[in-house]
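Please produce the structure of this protein holding S-adenosylmethionine.
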Amino acid sequence: MVKPYKNLEGSKKEQVRTMFNRIAPRYDLLNHLLSFGIDNIWRKNVVKQLRELKAPLILDVATGTGDLAIQIAKIDPIAVYALDLSEEMLAIAREKIEKRRLHTTIQLKHGDSEELPFGNNFFDAATVAFGVRNFENLQKGLSEIHRVLRQDGRLVVLEFSRPKKFPLKQLYHFYITRILPWWGGIISHDKDAYSYLPESALQFPDGKDFTKELQKAGFESQKILPQTFGVATIYVAIKK
Ligand SMILES: C[S@@+](CC[C@H](N)C(=O)[O-])C[C@H]1O[C@@H](n2cnc3c(N)ncnc32)[C@H](O)[C@@H]1O
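Below is the modeled complex.
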């Protein structure tokens, strides 16, 4: 199992929480810099997969600093519940949400995706952007999302994947293993956090392998949508 800090004790979950608490103040800046701003386009593409549903109740798991929840609020659901493990990431999300006067639509919740604090069949749709890779137990997290979604409810996941073709495969590998940890380490002041990112991204199941995980948790996979030459992928699945 890939954990953020090789020299520290503690479960992956504890370490992931520590890491995001540490990097929270610089997370947004780093995200936009290291992805050249493309991360916002990917989040907008996630929202496109929800728009026609007109889902009243949406859950954003691993919401972090809330960028996806804020995008989702624009399609006028009754409520977006935005949950995260890291208090410091949520504190930044809270500031952004209050500044945009979205606090009546977006309900922030501190919690664990592997033990969701919601009843069965509660949500019409759920999203996870760059969260599933950080779960300690992927199946437990996906099964919990399945439990809280209603029958035929839609799950949209955005996660890093790997370009498969020459020369992008090689360019991406060079960027993610050499450039990104270097820049990320300098700006975040947490070298380990930006070594963990490529390590976890390179070993995480992508494409068909990830849809197998979705199926194991009880979902029917509907779409695999590679983004920007396959650097990230959007997965759309339905609770069956
Ligand atoms: C890379 S950030 C993504 C944040 C946001 N979704 C985005 O698109 O920028 C991953 C987030 O997952 C959260 N996370 C990791 N494991 C979690 C868990 N078991 N339960 C809830 N949140 C978790 C972290 O605290 C962190 O805020």
